[in-house]
Amino acid sequence: MTLQQQSTSEAESYRPLVPEAQVKEITELRRALGELGGEEGEQTVPFLGLTLRVPASVMTPCPVSPMLGGAVFAEVKPGDRVLDMGTGSGSLALIAAKKGAEVLAVDLNPDAVAAVRVNAELNQVGDRVEARESDVFAAVEGRFDLIVFNPPFQWFAAADYADVAGTDAGYRALTRFFREARDHLTEDGRMVLFFSTMGDVAYFEKLVADGGFTHKRVFTTTQPVLDVAVDFTVHRLS
Ligand SMILES: C[S@@+](CC[C@H](N)C(=O)[O-])C[C@H]1O[C@@H](n2cnc3c(N)ncnc32)[C@H](O)[C@@H]1O
């Protein structure tokens, strides 16, 4: 079964928890963003004092990414063992490493894993960042003081690896993440997660509540995405 076939059946069986009007708005946003198309070729972008090389198939940090990067920087303590789940270009992994953490950066997308290795060397933290392909926790062993995750926000079927940055069919990955995260945290472990109203916030909040975590919303901002006002929130769980 191809990624797209598997993804389509998972997405079709998902029933969103947000009201129907929001489902319509989110679905329309996905269609409109899809029409814009993606970047062509590798880009070199600045991010909070770092320089990132980002292949076309990997998510480029967006206007709200510095808010999440700042929250990660504030949360990391030197010497922490940090897991960057869904690392993309490695932006959050590198921020944590710059603060003195030992970081494992994982992603389903092999191009992302290659990009993190390049970016870690480029930003002089190659000795503190290990990158590995993993479907959620499948290739992750051990426990971490801090897990960070900026997940794909939407639940639709993904067309390819590049699309997996924005959509997680039926929230299969997010659901597994919450089911297994506790087993990968130290006793005082904490998590910094990102989510937005581009996705099913009600389902995200349910996963948080069902996980029994202490939950704090660190920061929320509202930004226009095309002509829609979207809330982006940094969550701290412990
Ligand atoms: C929204 S992007 C975040 C990228 C980066 N962390 C950032 O903040 O710029 C989500 C990332 O999760 C990855 N991803 C999606 N599904 C995954 C899975 N099942 N296991 C691991 N990574 C996954 C995507 O490939 C993508 O790089």
UniProtKB/TrEMBL annotation:
<dbReference type="InterPro" id="IPR002052">
    <property type="entry name" value="DNA_methylase_N6_adenine_CS"/>
</dbReference>
<dbReference type="GO" id="GO:0008168">
    <property type="term" value="F:methyltransferase activity"/>
</dbReference>
<keyword id="KW-0489">Methyltransferase</keyword>
<dbReference type="InterPro" id="IPR029063">
    <property type="entry name" value="SAM-dependent_MTases_sf"/>
</dbReference>
<dbReference type="Pfam" id="PF05175">
    <property type="entry name" value="MTS"/>
</dbReference>
<dbReference type="GO" id="GO:0032259">
    <property type="term" value="P:methylation"/>
</dbReference>
<keyword id="KW-0808">Transferase</keyword>
<dbReference type="InterPro" id="IPR007848">
    <property type="entry name" value="Small_mtfrase_dom"/>
</dbReference>
<dbReference type="InterPro" id="IPR050320">
    <property type="entry name" value="N5-glutamine_MTase"/>
</dbReference>
<protein>
    <submittedName>
        <fullName>Methyltransferase</fullName>
    </submittedName>
</protein>
<feature type="domain" description="Methyltransferase small">
    <location>
        <begin position="78"/>
        <end position="194"/>
    </location>
</feature>
